[in-house]
């Protein structure tokens, strides 16, 4: 990657390379400034798309502070937030990658399940603090030391309260968004549990619950998701299908908490 492919600086973070796009923004690997006093020599900086007003910045910082205040070993560490035309924040770097893009290219089944179970525990800890994550996708589940962490709090709605729905739902993420959110609802425990079920379907089958939808065109993808009930892959075994169907509110009891989802994911490990 050449220097022209990414900015040299993001505020006072020195950019090493561009990591990719996800969740209404772009991620960069960067060297943190000395003012933060971090032991880590690398962090990830997420830069949100589009300009950000002072009011939106304050809302975003408030949400991030609430996230950072939750005591949980299953949440990614947050380090800083900056407004420089666009809203950006710095968080912990995970060299092993995410469920959507593991560094080794392929992640073994049990390792993926362990990462998702830990992410569900982190989501539960957020819920207990009164926070809905609102953006649980394979890209937000990071792989870490035999387990996982949840990151990338869904700030798009907070930063762009007057924007259309398509600004919140990015290409590839429709598969993991509860239809109630697509219809204009508010993130909640139940919508996060739905997203965890959709992520589990991806981990076990490599496919989304809506099958082939035009993910590169958010509005068409939303319409397809709202008009097509989720469907489970036939390759799932009974226990796998039962848990996912419950999370998606298709059949059987719906898990009451993300912690329950975590425990049942652990039970699926061989």
Automatic annotation (TrEMBL):
Transmembrane segments: none annotated. GO terms for molecular function: ATP binding; protein serine/threonine kinase activity. InterPro entries: Kinase-like_dom_sf, NEK_Ser/Thr_kinase, Prot_kinase_dom. Residues 13-270 form the Protein kinase domain. It is an enzyme of class 2 (transferase). It catalyses: L-threonyl-[protein] + ATP = O-phospho-L-threonyl-[protein] + ADP + H(+); L-seryl-[protein] + ATP = O-phospho-L-seryl-[protein] + ADP + H(+). Keywords: ATP-binding, Kinase, Nucleotide-binding, Serine/threonine-protein kinase, Transferase. Pfam families: Pkinase (PF00069). It comes from the Bacteria. This is non-specific serine/threonine protein kinase. It comes from Gordonia iterans.
């Amino acid at each position: 990657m050449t220097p022209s492919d990414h900015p040299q600086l993001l505020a006072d973070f020195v950019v090493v390379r561009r990591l990719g796009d996800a969740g209404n923004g772009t991620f960069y690997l960067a060297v943190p400034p000395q003012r933060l006093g971090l032991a880590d020599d690398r962090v990830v900086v997420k830069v949100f798309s589009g300009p950000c007003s002072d009011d939106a910045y304050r809302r975003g910082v408030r949400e991030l502070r609430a996230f950072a205040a939750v005591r949980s070993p299953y949440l990614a560490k947050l380090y800083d937030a900056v407004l420089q035309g666009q809203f950006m924040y710095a968080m912990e770097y995970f060299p092993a990658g995410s469920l959507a893009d593991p560094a080794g290219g392929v992640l073994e089944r049990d390792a993926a399940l362990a990462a998702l179970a830990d992410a569900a525990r982190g989501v539960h800890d957020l819920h207990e603090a009164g926070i809905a994550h609102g953006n649980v996708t394979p890209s937000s589940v990071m792989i870490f030391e035999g387990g996982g962490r949840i990151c990338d709090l869904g700030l798009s709605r907070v930063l762009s309260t007057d924007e259309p729905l398509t600004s919140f739902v990015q290409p590839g993420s429709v598969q993991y968004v509860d239809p109630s959110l697509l219809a204009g609802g508010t993130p909640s425990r139940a919508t996060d549990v739905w997203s965890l079920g959709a992520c589990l379907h991806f981990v076990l089958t490599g496919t989304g619950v809506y099958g082939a939808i035009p993910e590169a065109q958010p509005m068409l993808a939303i319409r397809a998701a709202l008009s097509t009930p989720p469907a489970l892959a036939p390759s799932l075994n009974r226990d796998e299908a039962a848990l996912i169907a419950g999370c998606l509110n298709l059949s059987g009891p719906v898990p009451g908490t993300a912690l329950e989802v975590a425990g049942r994911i652990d039970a699926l490990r061989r």
